[in-house]
Write a structure and sequence with these properties.
The protein is α/β, with parallel strands linked by helices. It contains 16 helices and 11 strands. It has a domain of about 50 residues. Helix content is about 35%, strand content about 10%. The strands form 4 sheets. The protein has a 5-stranded mixed beta sheet. A two-stranded antiparallel sheet has the order 1-2. α1 crosses α4, α2 runs antiparallel to α5 and α4 crosses α5.
Length: about 500
């Protein structure tokens, strides 16, 4: 190994990088819905269940009482469940103005679905113990020893780069592998500068066998449900021929904006500044080489310091509330007094129409990923053989859930159809994983795959939709209990 190798990651984005285009200001109606979500979270006595199962169960009971989200605001989510708890300070700090906007965007600004997504995300973070894992990284240290996933550098739009090398898998399929994915995602989010809310995903797909399907589904469910609106760019290199057959199958379901974010075998140096791009595999100029005993403690210290700074600013400016500006607490705007508190300026009924609430995002509105033109499907995709799922009786190759991520980034309608939750909810074009529902076969598969936690469908704005966001897109069309599609 060269004596010039570097084992610690860069400390800040490259000077040549610039922020992506600013997202458009919220409309009056969108601002009203954002205010409503934040008021819901800030109501004294508000509580959330400690498990996803209990959260879904309580949401079902709430739907039976009322399908109008205006009647939910400020009421604890504790119907029929035994274990609930108020929001902690760490959870309030997490529930920023911009995070609430991400929930709303992921649900196409459907208030009921966004509230449900927000509540379930908190329940999941508690059950998964995301904060505990952050405080005790030694739990997953062995998973990182080979450098199969790490955060290093920023792309041309100041998005932190998350590298994945599935061929470096070093452990058998386990919950610890999923914990490692979540832990690495959390560190990537920690390193997002003020004004950035997306990451750049770089995947070396060379010499990789398809991952165990069950593990892949679990990871994809986490990505699309609890890390919505986080993918800014996905770069895949050394794409194997077998991939293209599968990609042809799922490509029609990939939202055009999401598809435009994916690059296969590109000139990566045009997307990530060469000085911050890994050299050996991605042809950058950085001398960074993953060495676990040096990188792991270094990234822990860097992100711990970052979180402490963010939390200190939230304590200073947040007044113990949800909805504080993420731009502010990440240091994007230094102020000497607390910002205006995110509470409704008008009655909830007005907020649901065209309430003219104040824009809480201010100059720190999150940056929007630039849509670059010119996406072309690689020519090898037209002639490659169709993808065949490995037999469950064949030897299980040493691989994590990560390898399937690039091949299913836009196609989770197939992989999630028979997942435990069986719900495709990442509906916006900027979700980490985006799908397009609408066909009877897809909806039927989703309905048939649901377990005892299946959610009731409710009318919302003239469309049939469950409170987690699955919608048929056709008025009075419902997914019946037997999985068939019919008129209400």
């Amino acid at each position: 190994m060269s004596d010039t190798a570097v084992y610690t990651a860069p400390r800040q984005p490259d000077a040549s990088s610039s922020f992506a285009a600013k997202r458009a200001d919220l409309t009056a109606e969108q601002q009203g819905k954002l205010d409503a979500v934040i008021q819901h979270l800030n109501t004294p006595g508000f509580k959330v269940p400690n498990t996803v199962k209990d959260a879904r169960s309580a949401q079902k009971q709430r739907l039976k009482q009322s399908k109008d989200p205006k009647n939910w605001l400020g009421k604890p989510l504790d119907l029929g469940v035994s274990s609930t708890a108020p929001l902690t300070d760490a959870e309030k700090c997490y529930l920023t103005n911009e995070q609430c906007q991400r929930f709303l965007r992921a649900q196409k600004w459907e208030l009921a679905a966004a509230i449900a997504r927000c509540e379930e995300t908190i329940a999941w973070r508690r059950e998964f113990d995301v904060d505990g894992l952050t405080k005790q990284p030694e739990i997953i240290s062995v998973e990182g020893e080979t450098g199969k996933e790490f955060v290093m550098g920023w792309d041309i739009h100041k998005r932190p780069c998350l590298y994945m090398f599935p061929a470096r898998q070093n452990t058998k399929t386990s919950h610890a592998q999923i914990q490692h994915v979540v832990w690495t995602l959390e560190r990537t989010v920690d390193l997002m500068p003020a004004g950035v809310e997306n990451l750049c995903l770089l995947i070396d797909m060379g010499s990789v066998q398809p991952a165990p399907l069950g593990q892949s589904k679990k990871v994809l469910e986490i990505l699309q449900t609890y890390y919505c609106e986080r993918l800014g760019r996905a770069i895949c290199i050394n794409v194997p021929t077998i991939f293209w057959g599968f990609y042809r199958l799922v490509s029609p379901f990939v939202d055009p904006v999401t598809k435009d974010k994916i690059r296969f075998n590109p000139d990566v140096r045009t997307l990530v500044p060469p000085a911050q791009l890994e050299k050996a595999n991605f042809k950058g100029d950085s001398s960074f080489v993953y060495k676990h005993e040096q990188y792991f403690p270094d990234i822990i210290e860097a992100t711990n310091n970052r979180r402490q700074e963010i939390f200190a600013r939230w304590q200073k400016f947040g007044n113990g509330q949800c909805g504080v500006s993420e731009f502010l607490i990440k240091g994007g705007e230094e102020q000497t007094s607390a910002p205006e508190q995110p509470v409704l300026k008008t009655p909830v009924s007005a907020a649901m129409s065209n309430a003219n609430g104040s824009n809480l995002s201010g100059p720190g509105s999150p940056a929007h990923s630039v849509r670059s033109e010119g996406y072309r499907e690689p020519p090898e995709a037209a002639t490659a053989p169709d993808y065949v799922e490995p037999s469950p009786t064949s030897p299980d190759p040493a691989s994590t859930s990560v390898p399937s991520t690039p091949s299913k980034l836009g196609g989770q309608s197939e992989s999630l159809a028979d997942s435990p939750a069986g719900r495709t909810r990442a509906d916006s074009a900027d979700s980490f994983v985006t799908t397009r529902e609408g066909s009877a076969s897809t909806l039927s598969a989703l309905k048939n795959a649901r377990d005892d936690d299946a959610l009731e469908l409710a009318h919302s704005n003239g469309e049939i939709q469950d409170h987690n966001g699955l919608e048929t897109g056709v008025k009075n069309l419902v997914v019946k209990d037997d999985g068939s599609i019919g008129q209400a």
